[in-house]
Amino acid sequence: MSKTNYLLINTQIALMDSPDQRYGGLIEDGAIAVQNDQIVWIGQSAAVPAPFDTWRQHDLQGALVTPGLIDCHTHLVYGGNRANEFEMRLEGASYEEVARAGGGILSTVTATRAATVDQLVAMALPRLDALLAEGVTTIEIKSGYGLDLTSERNMLLAAKKLATLRPINIKTTFLGAHATPPEFKGRADDYIQHVANQMLPALAQEGLVDAVDGFCEGIAFSPDQMRVVFDAAQKLGLPVKLHAEQLSNLSGAAMAASYGALSADHLEYLDETGVKAMAKTGTVAVLLPGAFYTLRETQMPPIAQLRTHQVPIAIATDSNPGSSPLTSLLLTMNMAATLFRMTPDEALRGVTINAAKALGLADQTGSIAVGKRADLAVWDVKSPAELTYRIGFNPLKLSIFGGIIRD
Q1: Which of 70-79, 101-110, 221-230, 395-404 has the lowest mean pLDDT?
Q2: 3-state SS string over the chain?
Q3: Average pLDDT of the chain to the nearest whole number
Q4: pLDDT tens, position by position, 288-308
Q5: Is the pTM of this model over 0.85?
Q6: What values do phi and psi take at 281, rounded to 5?
Q7: In sequence order, which residues have a C-beta less than 8 Å from that of residue 207 and are 6 or more positions away?
Q8: Which of 223, 124, 106 shows the shortest CA–CA distance to 165?
Q9: Half-sphere exposure of 238 toward its Cβ, with a 13 Å CA cutoff?
Q10: Torsion of the alpha carbons at 40, 45, 50 and 56, rounded to the nearest 10
Q11: Which pLDDT tens digit goes with each residue over 363-388?
């Protein structure tokens, strides 16, 4: 349906707005007034003021309304897949054997470089559709499987094109500092200079970059190398974020926080110094249980310390071909609860308001509040906890994107 003025009535509303109330405050038998693409009033169905009480009404029959879900860390655009190496690993092949057989990140780089923009879009659409079917209205998509200017551009162009084909808000992140490409083998510093001085400025000038990311790890890039990229991002006025402390503690999260990073992601080996640094700058901790599960990791992120220091916690699918071939944010919520012992309240915050903070969008979406975009998900459940509790079940009743109702 087209944008119009209407009223959602007879619904339970999880506002996700107040940090001091469960689910940000719950309204029973609530109502939401939507004008064009904005929320203009929220309250009890019995107390709808004029002129909203004369607007067209949609009786939701007691269904739960939450903000539209947000997947704030994905690698959704890429070529090929790595099912073959997944099978090889399960049959006992070592990492080195998989690599010699053409597996690993460079196999995805090869497939991505060989794909056109339209081919990348076609391959990404089924993955995006799976997320849309679960009430996702905002998603972040990273580059990072091209590792040269042309292919990174193609990935970002594909991500932007997806937003013209589906009802979704897409934020693009340049992840040129994901791995060292074959043509720069043994010259990681030279590649970082190329990322910072050639690739990033060119792509930013074309309006393809909303944020800048990197992989700070012993098998990828050091904090000093990432500083080169972050300095370039700052000169261009772009926010930064970082894959950090996934496999070891290089103090990447603290370094990212020193740049006012939107988020630091993974964080299994994060220490209290890093937690405090993130707390000081408001950097969001984005936890990725899909990768933890797929890689059979045993080192859990420091959930208790993040809570103690009041670092906002988001969760995301990390959808990618190698370490997290996951396209269900609902399953991600259950994984966060089961594997990381997060509460259902924390899990829902992790895919709404805190995920919005991780993308710099908390003033626009992520909670149900007057003045925010009418990006909403309507669920056929009795309690918000059901969204985290169930496994392999999708109770979405309908989705609302920018005020447009989609069954």
Answers
A1: 101-110
A2: CCCCEEEEEEEEEECCCCCCCHHHCEEEEEEEEEECCEEEEEEEHHHCCCCHHHCEEEECCCCEEEECEEECCCCCCCCCCCHHHHHHHHCCCCHHHHHHCCCCHHHHHHHHHCCCHHHHHHHHHHHHHHHHCCCEEEEEEECCCCCCHHHHHHHHHHHHHHHHHCCCEEEEEEEEECCCCHHHCCCHHHHHHHHHHHHHHHHHHCCCCCEEEEEECCCCECHHHHHHHHHHHHHCCCCEEEEECCCCCCCHHHHHHHCCCCEEEECCCCCHHHHHHHHHHCCEEEECHHHHHHCCCCCCCCHHHHHHCCCCEEECCCCCCCCCCCCCHHHHHHHHHHHHCCCHHHHHHHCCHHHHHHCCCCCCCCCCCCCCECCEEEECCCCCCHHHHCCCCCCEEEEEECCEEEC
A3: 96
A4: 999 999 989 999 999 999 999
A5: yes
A6: -105, 0
A7: none
A8: 124
A9: 26
A10: 80
A11: 999 999 999 999 999 999 999 999 99
**Assigned token pair, 393:** 């079940």
Q: pLDDT by residue (tens digit) across 68-106? A: 999 999 999 999 999 988 898 889 887 667 767 777 888
Question: In the block, which residue shows the tokens 């092949």?
Answer: 93
Task: Kindly state the average pLDDT of the residues 110-119.
Answer: 98
CA distance 52 to 235: 47
- Return the bridge partners of 212, or none: 174, 240
| Residues forming beta bridges with residue 216, ordered by sequence position | 221, 244
Q: Which two tokens stand for residue 385?
A: 């906890």
Give the Cα separation of 170 and 176 in Å (integer). Answer: 18
- The answer on pLDDT for 2 being more than 60 is no
Task: Return d(Cα 331, Cα 328) in angstroms, integer.
Answer: 5
Let me know: does 101 contact 94? Beta carbons within 8 Å.
no
